[in-house]
Design goal:
five-stranded mixed beta sheet; transmembrane helix; Bifunctional diguanylate cyclase/phosphodiesterase; eight-stranded mixed barrel; alpha/beta; GGDEF_dom; 21 helices; EAL_sf
Length: 479
Amino acid sequence: MLLNRAGADLSSSQSILVTGGLAYGTAVILLIRFGLSSVGKLEDLGLTDTLAAMPNRRALHLDYARAAPGTEKALALLDLDGFKSVNDQYGHFVGDKLIKECAKILAEVCSKDGRAYRLGGDEFAILVIGPIAGNILEGICHTLLARLGQSVTIDERKLLIGASVGLSRSSRRDELTSSELLRRSDMAMYVSKDAGRNRCTWFSDDFDRNRDVTQQVEAELREALRLQEFRVAYQPLVDAKSGDIVAVEALLRWERADGSTVSPGVFVPIAEKCGLIYQIGLWVLRTACREAMAWDEIKLSINVSPVQLRNPEFPVELGHILEETGFPPSRLELEVTETYLVSDPVVANRNLDVIRKFGVGIALDDFGTGYASIGFLRNFRFEKLKLDRTMIVDAGLDSGSLAMMASSIAVARAMDMEVTAEGVETKAQADLVRTAGCDQIQGWYYYKAISAGEIRGHLDEIRDRNNTLGIGEAHGHVG
């Protein structure tokens, strides 16, 4: 209305831009007041990201709408991996420079085949319109990932970043809107992140079906918390020499009211994504500490989700639980995975240092499935290394894998870490890891996950047996 009263003659598409926001509307009034109402200036103001000097989200929607009906359109949404760490370590000034450098790289890679946009933060998009648009876009994105995989120099600092990319397309048959294509690309981008980052993923209809399942499980999780359908099971760790129980690992179980169970592999990732894992994790800690109080001097091991460790309140909550239950911190061991530590090493080290001050031990879980180096182990100073089942299985199949397992145990010994072999299911595997020098063994060959009451029963049997033999304290533990 302001433009009409001022007598400006704008097209309908340009008029739409006026509704983009209060700041833009104010700027339009200033342009008119000072006689600067050219269409070019208005388009620049509403369609350009000023930091990256490239088209913005509004420009993307407009370009998409201008495409001829029935034309194939392909859209990539990419999110920079590691950008948050750059901002945290070097500040937003360096982060802004990195955004500008990435914008230049995108423009170069797209060239004349596509157009790049900055959507906000560290999110960018690439739009390709025309025949075989999907093939062209995929080629652009693979070239882009290769470029972003190289270090970027900002203020004499070499920064290593990458990108997670989601791809989607609209053909003559479906004629999807730009908003729907963005939604699909966004879903595919998160699949790329979950799969390890620095990769491209095309949208699949399965993603929507999985989303529906996820939403249903999330609703059931909230109800399960209210109805207290969770319980904790415990899998014993035995001394490699004596076979006595020296520790237990707490394992979360979900049993619905109808008696059916839900696998942790299904509901834990969903709980992490929807934010429920923090509340559930605290419940597991509190429950396990209470139940393990009566189990002589054996240790209690509990897995901690990366989501929990990222929460600055977690060490405080842990302290409250230890005080509330009276559980000795020296008997508690938290298991963490390499994924969290690698993705945010500065914050991770800070949080783990606070936890260690309580007297709680830290174990690296699933060792052998990632990329942990000697330097990595030294930086985080774990009290225990847990060898993943795949390493145990492979060591029994070929000499190279066996040498790798032996060297891992030797490194742990040199760093004063205990070593536990996970997933031991046969006598041959038990003999193998025992001979290799593991301190504890965990797996179905000895015990499956059992209830708290069964743990008490097994400990009583071991105590009675050792007392009968007159070796009650021969192994350095009561259990």
